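Worked example 2:
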Amino acid sequence: MSLRLSTVILPVDRWHQGGRAKWQRAEELGFHAAYTYDHLSWRTFRDGPWFGALPTLTAAATATERLRLGTLVTSPNFRHPVTLAKELISLDDVSGGRITLGIGAGGNGFDATALGQEAWTPKERADRFAEFVALLDRLLTEGAVTQEGAFYTAVEARNVPGCAQSPRLPFAVAATGPRGLRLAARYGQAWVTTGDPKLYETGTPAQSDAALRGQVAKLAAACEETGRKPAEPDRILLTGFTPDRSSMLDSVDAFVDFAGRQREAGFTEIVLHWPVPDSDFAADQAVFERIATEGLAQLG
């Protein structure tokens, strides 16, 4: 099974003071894709610079030629399907059809209440996500959409000429629960996971690997339930949230060991955080770049 290597570049740099250079360097290093987070702010970065995902990706599209681009992930927390669809169609056009939409239900952090709403219950969040994905799918594939839902409404929403990619830009659906996995199986060209959050602090790499294999198996079952071939969706692992999150970037050999285990588990794409000094994503830039250029070749 082939394995692709991608990166996620946090939107923390001014574009003309290092931002553009990172995206261009990602293309030079041969990454399959470069993603960014779609948040209003995020965790320990909340009081520092943090730029918008879609303008950043638009700029990245004009600064690169081959690199796939996308979000990991966009959520309903502060997005509406109608306005998001228009922006995505525009972004896909600017990029020449290089956009992947990573999409998830979102969490209960700052984004969940920044617009003044009360934080949603887990059930409402899941209900909203299901409606959000289904409506967004229609908006990106049909020229005009009218739909009244429990949470989202579209009235004669026009989306001509549609995406540059056909029938629409691909969805990478982030999910671990049954409902989310069924959405991934139905709508996703790819599925995304960060692993089992319960193992983040006290779990072992072996426990994490077992949990990841279990998630892959559950995705396969969801695909079979929806009448889809289990191997059809790409399976993306966003690293940085498993017990071996730091050690896997210590050396090329450490990465090769990690990546080999994940390939055996069934993953088709591994995403590494571009190093951010003095943060949870700090790493040696030279080692990171060696991993980008040599890692998959050593994996064989």
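The CA atoms of residues 7 and 272 lie 5 Å apart. The beta strands are 4-8, 33-36, 68-74, 99-103, 144-148, 153-158, 171-174, 190-193, 234-238, 269-273.
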